[in-house]
Amino acid sequence: MDADAVVHALPITVDYGGQDLAITPAVVETERGLVLFDVGPAESGAVDAIETHLRALEYELTDIWLVILTHHDGDHAGALETLLDRTDAMVAAHREETPYVTGERDPIKGSGDDRYPPVSVDIELVGGVCVPTLAGPFEVVETPGHSTGHISIHFPDGELLVAGDALVADGPGDGADRLAGPKPEFTPKMERALESVATLADLDVTHTLCYHGGYVPAGADRIREIAESDRH
């Protein structure tokens, strides 16, 4: 199965902290409906923008049955409550991220005063969990550093990596060099994050989807360059 045909990037621009922010949630088709990777910030119009994308793909918002969070940061998880008000979707997050999503702990990069509305987590993930899709099964890969329980998603059949914030795509040009490592200013444990980049370099990947920057035709070779160069 061609992963590109059933994994869809949903690039949108939203308001986040009074500034325009370009983000790229994604969905994958399954026999049951759609799995959504990340949502967007609270009160940003992210859910409406996702709905517009889905209708262009001849889906509805209610076709989302599962939301998988790469991590709990507000620009990824903030709009969850809005989405859940309009769907029957379940929420899945790494077990280290769950307390931040549910409100037991304040987000690491925020405060109790400005945190997004907490929601319940239905499924706690760990590395190695696989979910069947029309693009073949995807595997949860633990990539901590940017956050305690950050995960990335690997589609082996399509050699595709959904990187979350473990990688970004903001380098120069429009080729493989656009793929870069995590941002130090937003990554509390940078050394651990670079170890996670090295983990990703060992996967069978030829193209990558980043939440910040979108799709890049680059995979394991470029990821390995990032891991080696950023450690020196």
From TrEMBL:
Pfam families: Lactamase_B
InterPro entries to which the protein is assigned, alphabetical: Metallo-B-lactamas, NDM-1-like, RibonucZ/Hydroxyglut_hydro
Gene3D superfamilies: Ribonuclease Z/Hydroxyacylglutathione hydrolase-like
UniProt cross-references to SMART domains, sorted A to Z: Lactamase_B
Domain of life: Archaea
Metallo-beta-lactamase domain segment(s): 22-212
SUPFAM superfamilies for the chain: Metallo-hydrolase/oxidoreductase
Protein name per its UniProtKB record: Beta-lactamase
